[in-house]
Amino acid sequence: METEWNSFALEVTYTVLGWVAFVVWSCSFYPQFILNFLRKSVVGLNFNYLLLNNTKHTLYLIYNVSLYFSPAIRFQYHKKYGFDQMIPVAANDVAFSTHAVLLTAVLLFQVAIYERGNQSISKITMGIVITVWTTVAVCSFIAFQSNSWLWLISIFNTMQVIIAALKYIPQVIMNFMRKSTDGFSIGNVLLDFGGGMANYAQMATQSIDQNSWVNFSGNIGKVLLSLVCMFFDLLFMCQHYVLYPSNKAASASVTEPLIKSPNQPVAASVPVAENV
């Protein structure tokens, strides 16, 4: 029997915050998707970031689906953290993870069909991804022998947090090297930050109602994910609005007035840099 909520108001708040996080985080994928579509280009978007992001969300999806739907894993969770504790995964977590895997796959498809310049996926990133899935295979074999399914998905949850931190670094470095955020959607960043705040607030609401912070340790991956996202989002905001606000590649030009005096020579167009 699952633990009941003590406060109906907090239960409603928990549900609302969860679906707000789902909507905002899910919408955060679309500015980049639309930007790529309009430009017919993915130049400026780091492919290492995309591949790591898809890997991270796949691991998070496995964790959320397993803990939300599997009676055996839920029993193992209660056995470890207490039968009076709530499962720290909600329906919105499952919905978000499913959507995130699909959208990151679509973004990778855009990389395959749009202009990408000389960009490519680095050997380091490929090594990380191969290491991750090798670890998944080895740990799955170990878990199968001992039925340690909660241990297994907890490893997946830990790995997705590590990848969440790693995935932002290539884009941060690319922005720094180019001294520009052109091609990387700031709308994605702003929505991602809002989703992280709502996600963290949802966890806090459950803890307040239950007068226990066990759900934070029980799903430490969800907590750290919110904090990691918000940290890097603030860094991206700093790059976009403070460090490199006017470094978009020049694409506009200023021409002479159409009406000239009879003796005034016609001047050539003078290109100027366009502000972001």
Sequence-ordered SSE layout with sheet pairings:
Blueprint: H1 8-27, H2 30-39, H3 47-69, H4 71-81, H5 91-113, H6 123-146, H7 149-178, H8 186-210, H9 214-218, H10 220-243, E1 252-254, E2 270-272
Antiparallel strand pairs: 1-2
Task: Tell me what the structure shows.
By secondary structure, this protein is mainly alpha-helical. It has one domain (8-249). It has helices at residues 8-27, 30-39, 47-69, 71-81, 91-113, 123-146, 149-178, 186-210, 214-218, 220-243, and strands at 252-254, 270-272. It has a two-stranded antiparallel sheet. α1 runs antiparallel to α8 (186-210), α6 (123-146) packs antiparallel against α7 and α8 runs antiparallel to α10 (220-243). The radius of gyration is 23 Å and the shape is globular.
Q: TL;DR?
A:
This protein is an all-alpha fold and 276 residues long.
Using the alpha-carbon principal axes, give the shape. Answer: globular
The domain tally reads: 1
Q: What radius of gyration results from the CA coordinates?
A: 23 Å
**Pairing-aware structural class of the strands and helices?**
mainly alpha
Helical content (DSSP H or I, runs of 4+): over 70%
**What characterizes the major β-sheet?**
2 strands, antiparallel
Order of neighbouring strands in the sheet with most strands = 1-2
Helix tally equals 10
Order of helices and strands: HHHHHHHHHHEE
How far the N terminus sits from the C terminus, by CA atoms, comes to: 55 Å
Q: Give the uncertain stretches in residue-range form.
A: 249-276
Strand content: under 5%
Number of strands: 2
Mean pLDDT: 85
